[in-house]
Amino acid sequence: MMxxxxxxxxxxxxxxxxxxxxxxxxxxxxxxxxxGWVAFRDELHHHHTVEDTSLWxxxxxxxxxxxxxxxxEAMEWEHxxxxxxxxxxxxxxxxxSAPAGAGPLDGSDLAAAVDELHQQxxxxxRHEEQDALPLALRVLTAQDWHxxxxxxxxxxxxxxxxxxxxxxxxxxxxEESASTLALFPGPLLALNGRFFEPRYRRQDRWL
Length: 207
Fold this sequence. Notes:
Structural class: mainly alpha
Low-confidence stretches: none
Mean pLDDT: 88
Number of helices: 9
Distance between the termini: 27 Å
């Protein structure tokens, strides 16, 4: 699941970078960019919250090695860098949520903020995949993973699932999507194919 989330974050980072470069030339796309941005922002915030409150504390309880502790501290430190950068992009880009024509977009400031977010988050995702995820897979029990997943479901809420599932697999190959969706209950997948996915496709996003 973590790798699927990371793929979705990377996809949206690419969309965000293109939006930062092109939105001034296509202000009519503002609403679509906002829709894509809000989904990315909310999913990233939820992902980091679950890691900080459930996943990494469970890993910390299962290990006492100094090297492992350093990995976990690095994850927390990197979250402390990335999350404020998300807020910076949102503040700089009052242009994203402002009505079209309400004022000029500060394209250079937005592009600089997005570039910094892109660099820092990309580094964090690589670091997490190379060091933190292998550590978690090595020390956590099935019960630990179940507890973390339960926390993720509880904090996310059922109302977000119709948007979350198609967002998670957007842009993925059929094989990749099937592998990711296999983690979810069959009845939910039936709803996704019949209702969630078509509704998601009808909503315009990004540029």
